[in-house]
Design goal:
The chain is of the alpha+beta class. The protein has nine helices and 37 strands. The protein folds into three domains: about 210 residues, Immunoglobulin-like (Sandwich); about 160 residues, C8orf32 fold; about 200 residues, Jelly Rolls (Sandwich), CATH 2.60.120.1130. The strands form nine sheets. Strands 1, 2, 3, 5, 6, 10, 11, 13 and 14 form a nine-stranded mixed beta sheet that branches. Strands 28-29-27-26-32-36-35-34 form an eight-stranded mixed beta sheet, with helices on one face. The protein has a five-stranded antiparallel beta sheet with strand order 23-22-21-24-25. This is Transglutaminase-like enzyme, predicted cysteine protease.
Length: about 625
């Protein structure tokens, strides 16, 4: 089968790469940069019985050892995607002699199981040539068949880095009565379209393209294809609208929500004493989190159809589809309507193309309308509170599957400081010879608390302590005692950590002065999933020696495009007090590099030594 949910599915047509035109007048120095040359013809044919045939013919001239990887061949297959034929050969272009005939029996065959998956039927055949004399030419062609026309591969005319594309052709052939849709990105050329005897042919041709490096994702030249009328495993619908796609998913869900008397009794026992829908939703969600295990299962109709809700109830595990559908079924038994919802998940994933209805999803969550509001449930998490999604599925368009069909909605963006806060209060006693003992109280809210919720839920005490060493980032530290409390019962998760820790090297001391640099918490861009954060640090450092502030105590006040920074330092009664606050406010679509640069600047502002004179 073709695994769609819980990981992306790729058909090996070609890599999606950005290019520049390769001009014929370029000098020899630039030509030497070429590792390989390729001529490629790709044909996508849709038949009247909804089957899709993918035909690819490649001729690749390998010029040097660096280009050898451009001759690698990857072929996926599964219950829904089959390899119909393959032939190829390796030849010496200077003599025309055949070096090796390529057959599928020469390919390695491996299970294509994604991380965390237990049940999956995708497999992969691959071939990597081992050659030592160049140039050499690899020619091959193959056909794949997809049962059902829900999925079409995207296509790019571009080659791999340092590969000259002499010619790349895409031809799409389909019955006019079934229809087909396409959309191009970063391509100005319209296809050549012809019609004959009820058959439509669309053709793109590109020549002399070259790129030196991997592209920026938004620069890739791309042709995307999607069906109008489509069918898979006997389930048919119209995908030209989101509503039509949702009606098709409804067919997959039909008849699978029925719960056994035992399951109904369990639901009743949980909700019968509760008054409001919110209370019932949260109680059933906590029951799901506490009793069911997430396991990726890439089986069923294209990885799209959940197993029966009662089967998940009995087995106590399921994938995102199964757990979400069980939660929907339990809510239905409690008299609460909820919508099975498709989403393109991933903290770094772009939003779907809302103007091009097609299957762009890899995950399922649950949308529960309640009291002029919505509770979103991530049913694969055993730590997130009801109503809080985290950066895996936040701030993106999703397709809610209602009784009337698909409806585009958008998940919360959490674009406020209230959803991401760190407050650390550290009291330090200097012990001499650079050593110190610290008592620290940490209060974490929202995104900042997620890792601690996970640690408390999944790790044992020893492993939690290992995580604390990693998170605190204090060198030469020995945690003597700690207490971690987490709360996932509210709309926004919280965590509180108190620890007593011995530090072997906290400061420097000479005969004339002490040098102290407070060790603020380390924050990376992973903690800025919602682009906002309030981060407060207060350090009170007590020294029993008689000293006075010499330098490094000037206040800092800075406002930039992405953050506001303030630091104040006071010294009284042999106690050095440092109060530092940062408020992050990154705009939408800020990339990680920009965040990392801002965090690096914060680190530079933080890591300023304070000098105390003895």
């Amino acid at each position: 089968m073709i695994a769609i949910f819980d990981r992306a599915w790729l058909i090996p047509f070609s890599l999606l790469l950005w290019t520049v035109n390769f001009a014929a007048g370029q000098g020899m120095e630039e030509v030497k940069l070429i590792n390989s040359k390729i001529n490629s013809v790709n044909t996508i044919r849709l038949t009247e019985d909804y089957e899709v045939f993918l035909r690819e013919k490649n001729k690749i001239l390998i010029l040097n050892e660096d280009g050898l990887k451009d001759g690698n061949i990857w072929l996926s297959y599964s219950d829904l995607l089959s390899i119909e034929d393959f032939e190829g050969e390796i030849t010496d272009p200077q003599t025309g002699k055949t070096i090796e005939k390529l057959k599928l029996k020469h390919f390695k065959d491996v299970s294509h199981i994604s991380e965390g998956s237990v049940f999956e039927d995708d497999r992969l055949k691959y071939y990597k040539p081992s050659l030592y004399q160049f140039p050499v030419e690899i020619t091959y062609e193959y056909t794949q068949k997809i049962r059902g026309n829900m999925y079409f591969p995207s296509w790019t005319p571009e080659g791999k880095p340092k590969q000259l594309v002499e010619q790349n052709v895409l031809e799409v052939i389909y019955p006019e009565k079934l229809g087909l849709r396409y959309k191009t990105e970063n391509i100005a050329t319209a296809p050549n379209i012809t019609k004959d005897n009820g058959e439509v042919r669309m053709k793109w041709m590109f020549e002399n393209l070259f790129n030196l490096d991997d592209p920026e994702e938004d620069s890739v030249a791309l042709v995307k294809i999607a069906p109008k009328a489509f069918s898979m495993e006997g389930y048919a619908a119209d995908m030209s609208t989101w509503n039509g796609f949702g009606m098709w998913v409804n067919q997959l869900l039909a008849g699978r929500a029925e719960l056994s008397p035992q399951a109904k009794s369990t639901v009743g026992g949980i909700v019968d004493s509760l008054e409001t829908d919110r209370e019932k939703i949260k109680a059933l969600y906590r029951y799901l989190q506490g009793n069911y295990r997430y396991v990726s299962i890439q089986m069923g109709i294209g990885g799209l159809q959940p197993v029966y809700a009662n089967e998940v109830f009995e087995k106590k595990y399921g994938d995102c589809k199964g757990l979400t559908f069980l939660m929907k079924s339990m809510l239905q038994e409690a008299g609460i309507a909820a919508n099975y919802t498709l989403v393109q998940a991933g903290s770094d994933e772009d939003d779907i193309d809302t103007g091009f209805p097609s299957n762009q999803f890899n995950h399922v969550i649950l949308q529960v309308p309640v009291e002029q509001d919505t509770l979103w449930l991530e049913c694969t998490s055993n730590t997130l509170p009801a109503g809080f999604l985290g950066d895996f599925t936040m701030d993106r368009h999703v397709l809610a599957i209602t009784d009337e069909g698909g409806v585009l909605l958008k998940t919360p963006c959490y674009d406020a400081i209230d959803y991401n806060q760190i407050k650390n209060v550290s009291k330090v006693n200097l012990l001499g010879n650079g050593m110190a003992r610290i008592h620290q109280a940490k209060e974490l809210t929202g995104f900042a608390a997620q890792n601690y919720l996970y640690a408390q839920s999944v790790l044992n005490e020893k492993d939690i302590q290992k995580y604390l060493y990693h998170d605190l980032g204090l060198s030469g530290a020995h945690i003597e005692d700690f207490e971690l409390r987490v709360d996932g019962s509210k709309k926004v998760p919280t965590a509180e950590l108190n620890h007593d820790t011995f530090l072997q090297q906290f400061y420097q001391s000479t005969s004339k002065r002490m040098i102290i640099t407070p060790k603020f918490q380390s924050v990376d861009s992973d903690l800025l999933g919602n682009r906002f954060m309030k981060w407060e640090e207060r350090w009170e450092i007590l020294n029993e020696e008689s000293v006075e502030l010499e330098s490094g105590g000037d206040p800092v006040q800075l406002s930039e495009d992405f953050f506001d920074y303030a630091k104040e330092i006071q010294f009284a009664d042999n106690t050095l007090t440092v109060v530092r606050t940062v408020n992050f406010h990154f705009p939408e679509s800020t990339d990680r590099d920009t965040m990392d640069k801002a965090l690096k600047k914060i680190a530079q502002l933080d890591n300023q030594p304070i000098f105390l004179r003895k």
